[in-house]
C-alpha cells in the first residue's frame, strides 16, 4: 500500500513556492554535505546516505520525479511530487513524498530522513507518513 508525507510551505516558510529543479538542488546539496561528512570520517558515507539516482520521465516534467535505488535489494523507489493546495482563498505549495507499493524498510527510513531535511531547509510544516506533524518554521 502506498504511503504519503507532505512538506507544506506555510506563510512563515523561507519561500512560498518551489520548483522541481529547486528540490533536486536540495537533494544534490544533501548528497554533497553527507559526502563531506564521510570524507572527514574517512568513510564513503555519501553512497550510504543517498543510495538513489534522480530520474524524471517526460510526462512528469516539472511536476514529479523519482529516486531510483542503486542497491535494488535494500532500496527501490521514492516518488517526489509538487503541487498546490487550494483552500478558501489561499494557495499553499507542497512537496509530496510517496512510497509506492512494494517499498522497503530502507526506502521508508530514507524518505523520513529526506522529508526532515527538506522541511528544515525550507522551514516548512512536515506531515509524516504516520500522520504526525512537525513544525520547522519560526513561530511568532
In words, what does this structure look like?
It comes from Fictibacillus marinisediminis. This is DUF1885 family protein. With 140 residues, this protein is an alpha+beta fold. The chain has one domain: Rbstp2229 like protein (TATA-Binding Protein), CATH 3.30.310.120. Helices cover 32% and strands 31% of the residues. It has helices spanning 20-41, 45-49, 105-122; strands spanning 3-8, 52-55, 64-69, 77-87, 90-99, 125-127, 133-135. Strands 2-3-4-5-1-6-7 form a 7-stranded antiparallel beta sheet, covered by helices on one side. Strand 6 (125-127) and strand 7 form a beta hairpin. Helix 1 (20-41) packs across helix 3. The longest helix has 22 residues, at 20-41. The radius of gyration is 15 Å and the shape is globular. It starts with a strand and ends in a 5-residue tail after the last strand. The model has no long low-confidence stretch (mean pLDDT 91).
Chart the SSEs and their pairings.
Elements: E1 3-8, H1 20-41, H2 45-49, E2 52-55, E3 64-69, E4 77-87, E5 90-99, H3 105-122, E6 125-127, E7 133-135
Antiparallel strand pairs: 1-5, 1-6, 2-3, 3-4, 4-5, 6-7
Classified in CATH, the superfamily is: Rbstp2229 like protein
The Rg value, from CA coordinates, equals: 15 Å
**Total helical elements:** 3
Query: According to CATH, what is the class?
Result: Alpha Beta
Write the CATH fold name: TATA-Binding Protein
Flag low-confidence runs.
Answer: none
String of helices and strands: EHHEEEEHEE
The major sheet is characterized as: 7 strands, antiparallel
Q: From the helix content, strand content and strand pairing, which structural class follows?
A: alpha+beta
Query: How would the global form be characterised?
Result: globular
Strand segment count? 7
